[in-house]
Design brief:
The protein is of the alpha/beta class and about 700 residues long. Helices cover about 50% and strands about 10% of the residues. The radius of gyration is 34 Å and the shape is globular. An eight-stranded mixed beta sheet has the order 12-9-13-8-14-15-7-16, sandwiched between helices. A four-stranded parallel beta sheet has the order 2-1-3-4. Helix 27 crosses helix 28.
């Protein structure tokens, strides 16, 4: 079976489409590199490559109006909300931000799916009126009136935002799609003889379908699908849902290329149940070690759960010379998250207390953060340890910043991170930028990962800084923190590698349009694939269904097609899932495993499924720890006894002699720490001290007869 990208190249050649005029529109950036290689392998000589572009970039480039970013769009909508708030005297950015982002997402879908906004908002308000209608009262309560007022304002907000952006010669991404669908001549703005090939698409919005249909009717577009009769001809199979709908909308029974491979091909499938999430990486790592270089070039490690990326990286065999990781390491999974949390926790503390004193826990986290440890010298680290000792010995809860300026470099960092922003968020971003510059400059070459994290973070904060420097609204630190985190938390650090050679490690969305002979699916648990993320919307699901907006059902169909499409070309499939119950449903294998076994394998006898359970071998012998009583140990025990025996010491000896030995004989006591409340051991010491001082005066005292006082 030929790879999908090779079939695209053959189709263009067989239909004599000129590379100079043809434009190939694809769903992902990753597919572009594979298509370019397919052209080279087909012609085996230098050629003029046709234009290959993602649909998102294609539409935005041809649209005459610039698309506004999400944060700026949120500020624009807030200005409308502030002039006409839902409730009187409630117009703060904090009260708006909770639902403003959801509203913008719904507005975008309304535009992208060409939904008549008037009709949708009227239906939405009618539904809310029915929900608030009651037989028992003739009038609505104050709360119900305010609730209805919110739905009344959605339509004015939508059209006011549209007019506001139009006046500024700006648009949204959803409106850009809608505008393109209604002005199809934009497709020929740069080339009147242009021909288009739409390849590898699955879930499409109404505007995208309209664009493809218009170009197809004009004879200027070919639509190539990567599908299989197994799920395409099954009217209830979710994997073929969108492609069946596309053919119906285009008024065609079929489209190239719908083939019959899943029902006839040979494929070896191994399903391995693992007791822990991380043990799956050991299974995949051991299987990768068996492959040679040529086999690795045809192998994909598919991350069903992308949070397991760090686990698979730790278990990659040393023999693998080339590996390309397209998922990227999310910044929110690095030490940057704790760094940002520390910065904002300090600012919240400054605002709450009204001074710049530093809570000792915040200082300790600051001093032990990987960014700071990578900057400080050995001498500076020793001086910080001395400060920590004084904090414990003197039980300090709050510190003066000036006492922490142990060196010129540390003084500069302290001045920045411990500076109160006083609700000046532009100053806050500026301080964070200065911290980024210092860390990037001072981190050693051995901390290259930390430097890469800081640089990527700095790039994300520059974008927010440019937006906030215009007309940012007044907001609380909680809202600014949410806005700030939303700006960088989705950023990733790319692992640069050869996208065409070596082992490929990808998430599901990166595999669109690509084919591999050998696939290792890592972490295929229910909830991770398909994901169970809810759709954040204010539009009820039945209304979304009526107007053709996506619902959870469509989302599941999207991921089902991506997964089954990968099986077209695969000859060997290894699936791992975890049976660890860390959350509800997390121990269940994905429904895809059951579907392959109960549906696909039943119609194709050439598919062989083998199930197994992974157990990690443990050949280590557990030995009882014994301590020989040497003369030195015996002497040390006598020293302990001469110092006095407490009840706690006897209790430790009776419950665990080893604990007694390490704690009192070797003096490996508990770690000293700052007490913010009176601990039980401190309270016991106080009671012992009081009793000692209370009864000490009566020791060796005698009465008038010369007799010692006796206990009664």
């Amino acid at each position: 079976m030929e790879a999908f990208v090779n079939r695209i190249v053959k189709y263009i050649d067989e239909h004599a489409l000129s590379n100079q005029n043809v434009c190939i529109v694809v769903p992902s950036e990753r597919m572009i590199a594979y298509l370019q290689r397919a052209f080279f392998e087909f012609y085996q000589k230098p050629i003029l490559s046709p234009k290959i572009v993602t649909i998102d970039r294609w539409i935005q480039d041809l649209n005459p109006t610039p698309v506004l970013d999400k944060t700026s769009l949120l500020f624009e909508l807030y200005e409308l909300f502030r002039k006409d708030p839902v409730e009187l005297n409630v117009d703060s950015f904090d009260s708006f931000m909770a639902w403003g982002q959801i509203l913008l997402s719904d507005f975008d879908e309304i535009d992208r799916y060409l939904v008549p906004a008037d009709q949708l908002f009227k239906n939405l308000r009618d539904i809310r009126e029915i929900e608030n209608w009651s037989f028992n009262s003739e009038e609505l309560s104050k709360g119900q009136i305010q609730f209805m007022a919110f739905w009344d304002k959605l339509k004015p907000y939508y059209f006011a935002l549209e007019a506001r952006l139009k006046a500024k010669s700006l648009t949204t991404k959803g409106k850009a799609y809608g505008y393109f669908a209604n002005n199809i001549d934009l497709a020929f703005a740069s080339d009147k003889d242009a021909q288009f090939v739409f390849a590898g698409f699955n879930a499409l919005s109404e505007s995208e379908i309209s664009i493809m249909k218009q170009l197809s009717i004009m004879g200027r577009a070919a639509i190539l699908m990567d599908s299989d009769q197994f799920y395409f001809n099954d009217p209830i199979h979710e994997a073929g849902q969108f492609q069946r709908d596309l053919c119906k909308r285009l008024e065609q029974k079929t489209l190239p290329f719908i083939e019959n491979h899943l029902g006839t091909k040979e494929m070896e499938i191994r399903v391995v149940e693992c007791p822990q999430f991380t043990s799956q990486a050991q299974v995949v790592g051991s299987e990768l070690k068996k492959l040679n270089t040529q086999q690795l070039n045809e192998t994909l490690v598919l991350l069903a759960d992308e949070s397991l990326l760090s686990s698979i990286l730790k278990h990659l065999p040393a023999e693998i010379e080339q590996a390309n990781i397209t998922v990227g390491l999310p910044l929110r999974q690095t030490s940057l998250r704790s760094w940002v949390d520390l910065i904002f926790r300090l600012q919240e503390s400054f605002l709450r207390r009204g001074n710049s004193s530093i809570y000792y826990r915040d200082f300790i986290q600051f001093a032990h953060h990987p960014f700071i440890l990578g900057v400080l010298s050995s001498q500076e680290k020793n001086e910080i340890q001395n400060i920590e000792s004084r904090i414990i010995n003197h039980n300090w809860h709050f510190l003066d910043r000036k006492k922490l300026d142990l060196s010129e470099r540390l003084s500069e960092l302290n001045r920045l991170i411990f500076e109160p922003w006083k609700n000046d968020w532009l100053r806050g971003i500026e301080v964070i930028q200065l911290l980024n510059e210092k860390l990037d400059l001072w981190l050693d070459e051995k901390n290259e990962l930390e430097r890469a994290i800081v640089r990527r973070f700095a790039h994300a904060t520059v974008v927010l800084q440019n937006i906030m420097s215009k007309d940012a609204p007044t907001m609380s630190i909680a809202s600014f923190r949410s806005l700030f985190n939303g700006n960088w938390s989705n950023e990733t650090i790319a692992y640069f590698g050869n996208p065409l050679e070596g082992l490929q490690i990808m998430g599901l969305l990166e595999t669109r349009g690509l084919d591999f002979k050998r696939i290792f699916v890592f972490g295929l648990n229910e909830g991770s694939m398909p994901p169970q993320n809810a759709i954040n919307t204010i539009i009820p699901m039945d209304l979304r269904k009526y107007f053709g907006l996506p619902t959870p059902r469509e989302k599941q169909g999207l991921f089902a097609h991506h997964f089954y499409r990968l099986l077209h070309h695969a000859e060997e499939l290894l699936i791992t899932y975890s049976s660890a119950s860390e959350s509800v449903g997390s121990s269940e294998p994905s429904r895809y495993i059951q579907q392959i076994e109960l549906e696909l394998a039943q119609i194709n006898p050439n598919i062989h499924i083998q199930k197994s359970f992974y157990t990690a071998g443990n050949k280590e012998k557990v030995e009882t720890t014994t301590i020989q009583k040497t003369d030195e140990i015996v002497q040390r025990i006598y020293e302990v006894l001469r110092g006095g025996i407490s009840f706690s010491m006897l209790d430790k000896f009776m419950s665990c002699p080893l604990d007694f030995y390490y704690r009192y004989v070797l003096r490996f006591g508990e770690e000293n720490k700052v007490e913010e409340d009176i601990e039980s051991n401190t309270l016991g010491t106080i009671i012992h001290y009081v009793l000692e001082n209370l009864f000490a005066p009566f020791i060796d005292r005698v009465d008038e007869a010369g007799e010692r006082f006796q206990e009664k």
